[in-house]
Structures are given as C-alpha cells and as structure tokens.
Amino acid sequence: MVRVPLPRFFRPLVVAAGVLSLAGAVAAQPGAPTVASLPATSLAKDVRLTATAYPTNAGKIFKWGNAQWNDEFVGPLKPMWSVSRQSQVRDQHGMLTLDATPTTGTVVAALTGHSRQYGRWEARVRSRQYAGTGTPYRVAWELVPNTGDHCGARSIVLSDYAIGSRVATAHLRNTPDDYSFGKSLDLGNQFHTFAVEVTPDHVSWFVDTRVVMTERRASARTGASYDVRFRLVGTPGTKMRKGRLQMDWVRYYTLARTNALPITAPQATLGTYADAC
What we know:
This protein has helices at about 15-25, 60; strands at about 70, 80-85, 90, 95-100, 105-110, 120-130, 135, 140-145, 155-160, 165-175, 175-185, 190-200, 205, 210-215, 225-235, 240, 245-255, 270. By secondary structure, the protein is mostly beta strands. Strands 1, 3, 4, 6, 12, 13, 14 and 17 form an eight-stranded antiparallel beta sheet that branches.
C-alpha cells in the first residue's frame, strides 16, 4: 500500500482529503505507481507529499542522532532570524521563503544566537526562477564566522549557484584560499538537501544524503564559530530576474555520534578568493 504521510501544513481539509482519496484509489490498482510518480496535475497545489521509502537527509543515513537545534518553519517566522527586508522574507506553507524582485537587490535571512565551531549543519533547499528577463539571482546557503568574515573570505558555503543553472558549488574559504567542489544537479525548482560536517581535522560536504567531498588540509579550516545564513544575491547596477529561495527545514547536529558510513571522498580544488575585504 502506498503510504501518504500528512504534511506538516495543509490547505483546507477537503483538499487534503481529496489528495488522500486519490492516493488510495491509485494504490488499489494492480501495479499502481507510487505517489512520487504521480503527475503534478493530479496532486493538489501547495500540498507537499513526502515519499517515505527512503530518507532525504544525511543525518538519517549517517546516523547523527537527534538534531540539537532545528527549525521546521511552522508558524510565523521566529525572532531568531534576522532579515534584510521584512516584506521579502517569511514562513510560507511551512517553508522559510526569500523572494527577490528585479528591484529589491540582495535578500538575506541569518540565524542569530546559535554560533557553533564544530558540528553538522543540514537544510533542504529549493529555488525558483520566474518568467522574465534579466540576470538570475545567486543562491548562497552558507555558514558565516560570527567575527571576521572579511566579505566571505572565511565562510563555508554549502551551495552556491545561479538560479536555473545546473551545478551547485561548495566553498571552504580561509583568506586568501578558496577550496571548492562542484556537483551537477537539477536546480530547477527541485528540492536538494545540502549538509556539511566541520570537525577539528576535516570538513565534509554532503548532497542528497551522499558525501561528495572531504577536505583534510589544515589550511582549509578557520577554527571560527559559524552562524547560518541564506541569501539571494543580486548584482549591483544590473537588472535582475525575479527569483525565490525556500528552505523546508534546517538542522544542527553535534559530533557526539560518529558517522555510520565512511566519509571517504575527493578533496576540494584549491583556488584564490578575490573578493576579500
């Protein structure tokens, strides 16, 4: 039987009931497809059905235990989030949502009061490119030192990409070095889960439950304490194209549990960060 878990948020009850009835009818047919394979037109708008056959987060696969801190974005935006533009950042349908128009410029949501030096951070993220013309906004889901950021020169970036592109890049920056690693992905309004593990002897990057980069060179680590930040980054003096960034949830885990699976992966590519200040 196809299992359809109730979403954390839902539209009027009749909509949710209709979706459940649809899934039950499909499940009764021989060789019925899973809910995940149903066409989008058969599912109610704004209701997210979550497949339960497999985890979507590295925390579950690598058995990091319970999150020490998390935000599932249920209800109004919590005061722990500092935002650059109140009208452009909100909790919408259980997701932290940043909207950037052709004229807003960069939009930021930064977590306050939860700096950590080591641990594991993870978020489920998607972006959307709207119709129109102009330069796409860039997505930046990052950990920023609580002191001495130097314009991004000491940040850890879990995903950096122009909306609509097909490669997300991670960065480990420690002035002047920039250790980077790219991952090909479908970034067109699709959810992806990005995570990073920061320890005294390595940094590992995870995408959609898989470890894709492990960097052990000491020069890649700053030893800083980090804060979570999400941005839609505009280009000054340029006409931008309307874009959106949404986070389904964000979580922090300690290093109390060792990884249940190996974290062996290629190291990053060393370059130079040119925008330090």
